[in-house]
Amino acid sequence: MVKIRDLRKDFKKYNCTVECRYLDIETGNSFGIYGDTGSGKTLFTKIITGLAGNYSGSVEIGGTELKKLYRKKLGYVPFRNILYGNLTLKEMSVFLLKHYSIDPNEYKVKMDWFSEFWDIKRFDGYRISELTDGQLQSVKIFAGLIHSPSVLVIDEPFNGLGEENSVKFRDLFTDIGKRDVTVLAVSSNMSSLELITQRTSSISNGRIE
To answer: What total of structural domains would you count in the chain?
Structure first.
């Protein structure tokens, strides 16, 4: 469960204050937050994933305050690519598995499972830099889930994939929900976000309603 109370953080660099007075997301549920460009969506994800600290209030995941949480519990799919472009998909995956102290042989298991939603097996030998925007987005989602996190945070899930992938997202979120993975997705695409999440809220000028 994700539990937020009286959250506030000033981002002076962006002239934005992110605030969330009250938010509960039950374990295994998918929750969406929509807002226009510049509304504070990405800044909010940086707080939830532990990339931006020094906030007031509390953020708890599974009963543990975020500041004390083992990062393996979190999966993050940022808007921009942070994967190493010179690595192949398989090399990147094995690197991540080792980073999270997981047996690299789990790669095939994870790949077979994820390919039920997006067929990324065919990219196995492709370098990350060679992928199209849509291919890269599906690989980023795979990377965010490869270590079986408790919470998956996605910034603009449809980036490069398009609204036609709504059904795939919905099926993926349903499946990982059964595995007790909680999803928080933020997007400027309100209609599509409502199709893939169980509940939605909005953000404007940094304030989550």
So the answer is: 1
What residues have CB less than 8 Å from 99, skipping those under 6 apart? none
Q: How many CA atoms lie within 13 A of 145 on its CB side?
A: 24
Residue 134 CB burial class (10 angstroms; 0-12, 13-18, ≥19):
middle
CATH assignment at residue 109: 3.40.50.300
- pLDDT above 70 covers a percentage of the chain that reads 100
Coil vs helix vs strand at 7: strand
Q: What are phi and psi of 38, to 5 degrees?
A: 85, 5
Give this prediction's pTM.
0.94
Which helix (H) or strand (E) covers residue 202, if one does? strand 199-204
pLDDT higher than 90, residue 27: yes
Rounded Cα distance, 141 and 54, in Å: 28
CA distance 194 to 178: 19
Q: Please write the tens of the pLDDT for every residue from 75-124.
A: 999 999 989 999 999 999 999 999 999 999 999 999 999 999 999 999 98
Give the domain extent around 88. Answer: 2-208
Phi, psi angles (nearest 5°) of residue 100: -95, 15
14-47 burial code (b ≥16 CB/10 A, e <16):
eebebbbeebebeebbbbbbbbeeebbbbbbbbb
